[in-house]
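Me: I'm a chemist; would you kindly supply a protein sequence with its structure tokens?

Assistant:
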Amino acid sequence: MAHSSTTKQSNISLSNCGYSKVLDIISNKWTALVIYAMENGKIRYGEMLRRVEGISKKMFTQTVRKLERDGLVQRHIIPTVPLSVEYSLTTLGETLLQPMKELRQWGRENYTQVVEARVKYDSAYTPGSHEAGSIN
């Protein structure tokens, strides 16, 4: 006997979905860039700021602290005068590199199509177009 849609239990939820949990970790635009900056090993604070174009000191600090809290990044303090700080991916953080590289590759191969689809959609559904009234 088939179940009705009202008795069917949801198998997709924010609290149980592995995808949403991972996206919660890496969805910030700076997170991916910071992780990529560390893909070749330890990197100093100043070098990281230079490599990640457009990131402010405040946003960088927030991003690496979140990644450190999640166990993906470790901070190394070098006892120099003044103190130097280096960051690197943990073993857990390194496991994110491959799936992130695959997403980056998907973007390189397909993002042009996404842009084209957006342009097509926007031109079809802008005020004044004959289809615009059909979206509710």
Summary: The chain has one domain: 19-130. The first strand starts at residue 43 and ends at 44. Residues 19-130 form a domain with the Arc Repressor Mutant, subunit A fold (CATH 1.10.10.10). The mean pLDDT is 86.
